[in-house]
Amino acid sequence: MKLVSLSAAAIAAVFLNASSCAVAFTPIHGGFVPTSRAHSTSLAASKGDVLDCLVVGGGISGSTLAHNLNKSGANILLAEARDYLGGNVKSKRDEEGFIWEEGPNSFATQPSIVRIANELKIDDQLVFADESLPPWVNHNGKLHPLPKGKGGKGAKGQLELVFGSNGVLNFAFKGELLSWPGKIRAGIGALIGHLPPPEDKEETIREWVTRTLGEEVFLRCIDPFVSGVYAGNPETLSMKAALPKIARIEKIAYSIDWNKFGAIFYGGLKRQVELTKERKADPPEPQWVEFEYGNPGSFRYGLSTLPNAISEGLGQPVGEPMKEDSKVRLQWKLTKIEKSNDIFVATFDTPQGKKTVNAKSVVSTIPAHALKDDVLTPVLPESAVLVDKIRSEIKRKGVYYPPVAAVTVAYPKSSFKDIELPNDFGNLQNLPGFGLLNPRTEGVRTLGTLWSSSLFPGRCPDDYNLLLNYIGGSRDVAIGSMSEEEIIAEVDKGCRQTLLKEDAPAPKVLATKVWPTAIPQYELGHLDIIKELEEAESKVPGLWVCGNYRTGVAFPDCVTFGYEHAKVVKSYLDGIEK
């Protein structure tokens, strides 16, 4: 019984450590290092000269790719339809001392982020959350912490995760989030085994979790986690596509000879050993700031620090008039890409009228829904699969982007419930945690609430708590047609249901940002769409159709893409030069 309950407690930690981005859906700018190469890209375009690479789309994927290509010596241009770089990443601050995000709130720290921060000389602005802060789950009117260590390193950290006051053992024997039947069911799947995966069916997240760990773990742990990451529906999201790292654990489990029934606990242990070896073989550079893998991080004045520094490094300081010799073009909307004599010709609508750019290679990182006007079909007709593919099983057409609203509010600390939280975390008024997840069974419309001022101190005046709330998603598309006042009312209602006293004052509303097409959904059939795209793309050398619908939705996924894909493009350019 003890072993079973222990493994059940570890399940939530496995999911959180595998992704480390629950409810982390993205103008201040930092310093930069000027590059040694300076090309007048606008003149090059007007004279008919040919760029090495045109990067279309200035979100995190596109801007980091442009930075890495420029750093490698390639002659590039970064074109973005909006009037800023960063995509859904928008950081704001006001004169009262509030700093907030209107998109993603943080990142799970990875080497790619620390590397680029070092290159741009903004690593002194990196901030990391207290590693002991847990995510909380709202269930039956109470807040339940998920297992977390206390920030210890190496073996000490592992001991804290198991034996600490908020460790796995405490969660298993004293935690009230899972019932004993739920713990037993999860323990059997984790330590003994479970039904094998179906051979002729792609599983949804709900089907996978229910098969391996049981319905209760799904409803109380994984469903709110998926809502936080994707704002998605786990009954349509593909396990292999949306959570590939976790799905891989099951394959690893079955690869262990004696583990005949695929108990995933042992697969997780084996994968952890592999990760440790991989990280030792490729350690961080000595000049980088110290960091912990997966720990929530940001920059002192918000995530926009990164794309703003990239813009400055490419010759276009934020807030200044467009510079002719910069490698950034804002408010340039791609209308068509064609090919002539092995050269790509891109046409843009711009504030100055139509512009064309010639390039040896093109990387599109614009969202799939932005390709609906056949901008790529002249050179890659098969790209229409991203917007036109009929997916009858889930009643979708193409890659789906649901609406999500990011609502930042603040309340006086004294208006929060004056209660002591379990596991020695102290009073709720101090918000000792990462944030709060709301399972869909709890009747709270808000998907999750990030405790921004606790994650990164200095984000609001001392007598306030700052909350970033996400609401909407695949299962609540009505958010997209609601007024700001209606959305705020729903968010305030959710805060009162979970965090506030009955007589709490009205919220101080800092921002309400509705993203009509927020996050691409990796639903059933998604991998088939990407496979079709890859096959078509292979027939058009020098063209890559990418974006977070292909390489991952999390902030670190986008930054890592920018680093890795720059190598691919540079290799291609070197090849055609030879």
Describe this protein's structure:
The chain is an alpha/beta fold. The protein folds into three domains: 154 residues, Orthogonal Bundle (protoporphyrinogen ix oxidase, domain 3), CATH 1.10.3110; 188 residues, FAD/NAD(P)-binding domain (3-Layer(bba) Sandwich), CATH 3.50.50; 149 residues, Alpha-Beta Complex (Polyamine Oxidase, Chain A, domain 2). It is 35% helix and 19% strand. The chain is built from 19 helices and 25 strands. The chain has a seven-stranded mixed β-sheet with strand order 9-8-21-22-23-18-24. It has a five-stranded parallel β-sheet with strand order 11-3-2-15-25, covered by helices on one side. The longest helix has 23 residues. The chain starts with a helix and ends with a helix. The N terminus is likely disordered.
Name its key features.
disordered N terminus, 578 residues, Polyamine Oxidase, Chain A, domain 2, seven-stranded mixed sheet, 25 strands, 35% helix, protoporphyrinogen ix oxidase, domain 3, 3 domains, five-stranded parallel sheet, FAD/NAD(P)-binding domain, alpha/beta, 19 helices
